[in-house]
Design goal:
The chain has 298 residues and is of the alpha/beta class. 34% of the residues lie in helices and 22% in strands. A seven-stranded mixed β-sheet has the order 3-2-1-4-5-7-6, with helices on both faces. Helix 3 links the parallel strand 1 and strand 2 (71-78). Helix 5 (147-161) crosses helix 8.
Length: 298
């Protein structure tokens, strides 16, 4: 069986997340996602006996969901025990879940799954861990995030160093994620996204926030030599020239992609079988029906 490629250095990711927590993390994205996830779950009309928060690096999501009386038990599952968590805790890696098949009713995750090397494998494990009619609701950083920073770095490196290196992670594209949910066996899969524009005084302030999120470059193929001062200066100039608003502040895009999927259950809605319609589409539209081999107008 072939192994999935190792895109992210997950040991380095954990070290940088630990450093961010120790130094005072930037949590505005997580807080926003946690609030919206609470709103999304509030309209789901069912109870969840056992829920897992998978990989979320702070307790922001669990604090919001603590007010949801539809959730009986919340378990925090992450690579390290988090002392700020008030819920039950399990040491777990998102790539190797410790949960038995059909043991969970709900899995939520906030801004963690974008750093998984084998996302299809993780989704399959989540689907297996869910009981029939169990729910996955996850938020990930999407592929259009940090497009401004990526563009400015690419042009600066090309000019100064004669080539480019991966400086920003290649996050998943929304068009691929729906297919991944289906491949993992989820029913009723839905993928949607929203964009958040954050403004900064300069790109260095953005880079400080990324460091405080524990979200700086952890690609295994990243350049290991220090960033040249001339390259950094040129990147700052390009960013300021292309992405400044009228007041001089700089735009940064964060795309949040939402994944929703249910473990299959006989009670769920299913598409009609081909040929089971009670009325022809041509009759509804008031048009003449042609067979597949006919050419109209002849």
């Amino acid at each position: 069986m072939s192994q999935s490629p190792t895109i992210f250095d997950r040991n380095l990711l954990r070290a940088r997340q630990d450093r961010a927590r120790a130094g005072g993390p930037a949590t505005f994205l997580l807080e926003r996602v946690a609030e919206e996830m609470g709103e999304r779950l509030a309209v789901v009309l069912r109870q969840f006996e056992r829920a897992v928060d998978l990989g979320t690096v702070t307790d922001a999501l669990r604090r919001v969901l603590a007010a949801n009386d539809k959730i009986a038990t919340m378990i925090a599952a992450s690579p390290a025990v988090m002392t700020q968590a008030s819920s039950l805790q399990v040491v777990a890696d998102e790539e190797a879940l410790p949960f038995a098949d059909a043991s969970l009713d709900l899995v939520v995750s906030a801004l963690a799954l974008q750093f998984v090397n084998d996302l299809p494998g993780t989704l399959i494990q989540i689907r297996r861990a869910l009981r029939p009619d169990g729910l996955l609701l996850a938020a990930m950083i999407g592929g259009d995030s940090l497009s401004e920073l990526r563009e400015a770095f690419a042009e600066a490196e090309s000019e100064i160093e004669g080539g480019i290196s991966p400086r920003v992670a290649p996050f998943a594209d929304i068009r691929d994620l729906g297919a991944l949910l289906q491949r993992a066996g989820f029913a009723l899969p839905v993928v949607d996204s929203d964009r958040l524009t954050v403004r900064y005084d300069n790109p260095l302030a953005l880079m400080r926030d990324l460091r405080a999120m524990g979200a700086t470059n952890v690609l295994t193929e990243r350049r290991r030599t220090p960033l040249k001062r001339a390259t950094l200066q040129r990147m700052l100039e390009i960013y300021a020239r292309r992405f400044a608003d009228a007041d001089g502040r700089l735009r940064t895009t964060f795309e949040i992609v939402w994944l929703t999927g249910w473990a299959p259950h006989e009670s769920q809605q299913k598409p009609l079988k081909p040929g089971s319609a009670a009325q022809r589409l041509a009759d509804v539209l008031g048009t003449k029906e042609h067979s597949a081999g006919d050419k109209t107008g002849q």
